[in-house]
Amino acid sequence: MINYDVIVIGGGLTGSALSYELSQKKLKVLLIEKDSVLNNATIYSYGGISYWGGTSNLTNQLCQEGINIHRNLEEELSANTEFREIDLLFTIDIDQNPQETLEDYKHFFIQPQLLDIDESLALEPLLNKNNITGCLRFPQGHVNPQKTILAYQKALKNNGGNVVQETVISLIQKEDKIIGIKTNNKNYFTNEVIICAGAFSRQILQDLGLNLPIYFTHAQLIKTPPSDIKLRTLVMPATTKRFEMEKQATSLEIESIWQTSNNLIQNDVLEAGAIQFLDGSFCLGQISQIITNIDALVPKNTSARRIREAIAKTLPSLANIEGTWHNCQIAFSQGMPFQVGKIKKFEGLSIFSGFTSPFVFVPPLAKHFAHYLTENSDPIIESLPSL
Ligand SMILES: Cc1cc2nc3c(=O)[nH]c(=O)nc-3n(C[C@H](O)[C@H](O)[C@H](O)COP(=O)(O)OP(=O)(O)OC[C@H]3O[C@@H](n4cnc5c(N)ncnc54)[C@H](O)[C@@H]3O)c2cc1C
Fold this sequence. Notes:
387 residues; alpha/beta; FAD/NAD(P)-binding domain; D-Amino Acid Oxidase, Chain A, domain 2; 8-stranded mixed β-sheet; 5-stranded mixed β-sheet; globular; binds flavin-adenine dinucleotide
């Protein structure tokens, strides 16, 4: 029987980055991922690093640390994440007022630049000039999400960490202490279990009788093979509707619906967006839908058609590229843009999940949390609400 210092559940961005940082602290780390072919939120992500998006001293600091880590990550991990700096363009629809839209983004740490139609087209010639009144431009970092988690996992293994493909069925408890996990294969024992299971984190917590504010959306998108068409920027619509939907769906009055399953709480939100990766492939998105049943089936054909119709209005030349529809579940939380810390009710149990903008927040918080777990102190982690 092998005992580990730490067991991390989930091999997406959160689990991979945190496992690596823990292995940097010389801990014996086991990372457990249930799928051999990943079908998680990370691999379907755009991979945008929104380092402009801080809204408090804490998140501003993390945004600056986040982009600085990404700028040096390929060297640190000796692997290619395809990091680059690009423009993020938030398209302003013809029925939106540019000045009012600008106001919606004024509270961010880095202010956007308001572009008129000609300035927008100069940066992104694929935009449909008849459908926009302009764009908001932010500086953005960008990585290939899949390559980034592979880079973290490779560096973890180089540090002596283990990655296994098994499904965690339950956590092993001894009174108020978590002492290990039971997988579909065997039991593993450890001093600390950290839940990094994305949307599935909620279920693992619920099975332990814990009700932390971690929820999920069902996301739908289209991935394409490499194409000769060239998109220069990351394009997203200038809308806060997804955040409003998430806030409403987790308000106190209806929070209890999350204890049950199969309930559609809200309508979905469609954000016509696109990113092109360095190999020429695209991710076109995205529909976000709230259904409390994590296994709910979403209708493929209507969903793919709606995404293509929306893309046809904003980026017409991308609307008919051959591609494959996918869906996945994305975790989010309320009150904070992440849930990070030791869970008070159980000794030996922590959470590192529920991130909004994880590509900027996860790398620095993984460093801080690994420091906290090994040194028993870290000013950033100690400033977070207790769980
Ligand atoms: C279309 C789209 C665009 C996006 N764009 C951006 C963007 O530009 N910037 C940004 O920051 N974010 C973006 N996101 C969001 C971001 O990708 C996700 O929030 C993030 O990748 C989630 O990482 P995670 O590790 O929490 O979850 P996941 O990537 O879902 O990983 C969780 C893992 O846990 C595993 N797991 C679950 N249960 C178990 C179990 N019992 N046993 C073992 N393993 C288990 C799962 O198989 C999964 O691999 C986007 C998402 C989508 C879908």
